[in-house]
Amino acid sequence: MAESKTHHVVMLPWSAFGHLIPFFQLSIALAKSGIHVSFISTPKNIQRLPKPPSDLSHLLHFVEIPLPSSLDSSHLSGGEATVDIPFDKIQYLKLAWDQMQNPVKEFVSTLQPNWIICDFHPHWIVEIAKELHVKLMYYSVYSASTMVFFGPPGPLRAETSPEVLISPREWVTFPSSVAYQRNEAIAFYQGAYIENVTGLRDMDRVASIVDGANAVAFRSCYEMEGEYLNLYQELIGKPVIPIGLLPPEMSERRLVDESWSKTFEWLGAQATKSVVFVGFGSECKLSKEQVFEIAYGLELSEFPFLWALRKPSWAIHDQDSLPLGFCERTAERGKVCFGWAPQKEILAHKSIGGSLFHSGWGSIIETLMFGRTLVVLPLIVDQPLNAKALVDKGLAIEVKRNDEDGSFSRDDIAKCLREAMILEEGDKLRINTREVAKVVGDLKLQHDYMEAFVKFLRT
Ligand SMILES: O=c1ccn([C@@H]2O[C@H](COP(=O)(O)OP(=O)(O)O[C@H]3O[C@H](CO)[C@@H](O)[C@H](O)[C@H]3O)[C@@H](O)[C@H]2O)c(=O)[nH]1
């Protein structure tokens, strides 16, 4: 009992699956190291998480805190995660969380954990942690290169403009092309640097938490992001801890849902490393023009492909999502699967040679772990910054987007895929990818990072 009291962590992730999942993965890793974890989220979000291993049930506790009933329900319509809510209403989800500080405080005060590990949204947790004498850690689900680009609390709080975001930042002391294009800078500026209905800008939230935290953790490692991790520590003047890449543990006996057996049979019939996997993560909402251009690009490329496509909101039926006749024309060599795909198991399959991704940090790590070449077509938030950092390291080929409106062409998609999939053209990319795959897939190395992190939490 005394042991559990000494090492207890409260997790406070933002209500988006691109955040809930990395917090969940970290919770599992900590529980496996004997740390008690209380994972706070709303009831529906907790129900939608994967089931944790049953032998961890005494260490990993899920704490359901419902959204406040006082919030005008028409804004969220019963949704509890960003995926359920139109983009312009997501600010109300932040407002809802701001109204949840009392139940969170009550819980923390009863539990008296050693650490609170939080996301970017609950700026009020800084005061709670101080008052209750609990240490606070900010866990960034973004890469270290992205956080270096955003900068320390000073620049985060400063008046800025989209103009500032289109060049690499002046505090970066080594060659780096990490920056937004014009249209991306404008979109990001509007979402993060302008006050929303909560009375705050998102960047003020990040600044308060980085300022108030005792340390910052990244899902990263020195082998991949050493220069950015060291620079971020210098910039914020407090411990920055890479927890490792949390590579997915693949069990040979792991069963994929039966409905996928035909797709895996199809994959099994393809030549080794011949198939391109296409995915756009859990958050991106693709327009009709974007989906169609990707489809035509795949068609032009002539490679076998497996596309995990979530039905866009503008389509009524799954099949409306694609250009007329696309499935028939590509039936011999391609498959489009609608809904949530077993991405890790697909990437692990020997027939997959490369991928076309949105450049979400989680998908990058998974793709590199399995040594698959990356073509990146970044769309929102940190994705354009991740793409530039990968290109700097010779680890990806980036699809060109128009600087003014972000549009891209089918020809360029096909060209990038050819470069990534054909040996002579993409030779350098393949060599770099193989080298990094050794690091990401080195489970002992990644385990050592987690061990060092746990040691830090225990001291
Ligand atoms: O059909 C699917 C789609 C996704 N995934 C999994 O979901 C995760 C997706 O993670 P990521 O690639 O990071 O994409 P998003 O969920 O879209 O990520 C959001 O959060 C990331 C940080 O975690 C940011 O880097 C991204 O920009 C932001 O969109 C990965 O583990 C995938 O394996 C599936 O298993 N099946």
From TrEMBL:
It holds the Pfam family UDPGT. CDD domains: GT1_Gtf-like. SUPFAM superfamilies: UDP-Glycosyltransferase/glycogen phosphorylase. Keywords: Transferase. The keyword Transferase applies. It comes from the Eukaryota. InterPro entries: UDP-glycosyltransf_plant (IPR050481), UDP_glucos_trans (IPR002213). The keyword Metal-binding does not apply. This is UDP-rhamnose:rhamnosyltransferase 1. It comes from Stylosanthes scabra.
